[in-house]
Amino acid sequence: MKAEQNDMKPPRGYLNNTFLKWSAMLGWIDMVDTKPEIPQNIEVFNDLEFKNTEQRSLFLDIYREKDIGNPTPLIIFVHGGSWTKGNKKDYLIYLLSYAEKGFVTASLSYRFSQEAKFPAAVEDIICGIKWLKNNAVEYGIDSNNVAIVGGSAGAHLALMAAYTMGNSFGIEDCDSGPASHKVDAVVNFYGPADLTTDYAINRKETRFFIGADYNSQPDKYLIASPIYYITKDDPPTMTFIGTLDELVPLNQTNTLDQLLKKVNVYHDYHILKGWPHTMDAVRPVNNYT
């Protein structure tokens, strides 16, 4: 899947987080519809089981045009939620929007930190990719044209899946066939890329995800970091982050940008001035992205 340059100008942001929060409380921010109606021309396949784990079965949803013809590029969405919460319906606005543009779209569930520690969630996303590619013919998917998109913790998982070709990560536990989990592009919405920084190791969400503190198992934090796997063979990458993000600092995505450029991997990097974490929930940013 070829990455395309976004020629739109980013929407004007806010002076600081205080002004942003007051604007939200006063209803001055135009938010996206998180529960849009399913258009009549879109066909939905809900709750397709792609993996059975000790903790629970995992499911995915697929969206596509009813009159789909030739094999069509696939966009996979991975929701965020600090690796502890969230729902595969969280990106419904994107799933439907891109399905109406002619793509097949899919969203995955994965195990949370309270159910299983790293690398369980990464393994689940990889298994979901493999299931979709192994069932490509049935759902009209072009298995050679696959992109993965994630937000926050979901972006971390998307980057891990995209950059770990050649690493096992429990692939033998997947319930699907022989297709690889290779993707052709990855989109990172404000996801952490290096879990070995002071910022990351001091966050309770990271420790809960890893299942240990940094001092006791530093190597585990390293192998849970997408930047650890960057090579010249990684797929084109697109990143969005706001300068008011209080959860993922800019140095996370700046480091990702530097390392990708060092090995000549295409990186379309968007720093949106005056916007916070989960900024794509606001309509102007959503339209831009």
TrEMBL record:
This is BD-FAE-like domain-containing protein. Transmembrane segments: none annotated. It comes from marine metagenome. PANTHER family: AB HYDROLASE SUPERFAMILY PROTEIN C4A8.06C. The lineage of its organism: unclassified sequences, metagenomes, ecological metagenomes. Keywords: Hydrolase. Gene3D superfamilies: alpha/beta hydrolase (3.40.50.1820). One of its GO terms (molecular function) is hydrolase activity. Residues 60-259 form the BD-FAE-like domain. InterPro entries: AB_hydrolase_fold (IPR029058), BD-FAE-like_dom (IPR049492), GDXG_lipolytic_enzyme (IPR050300).
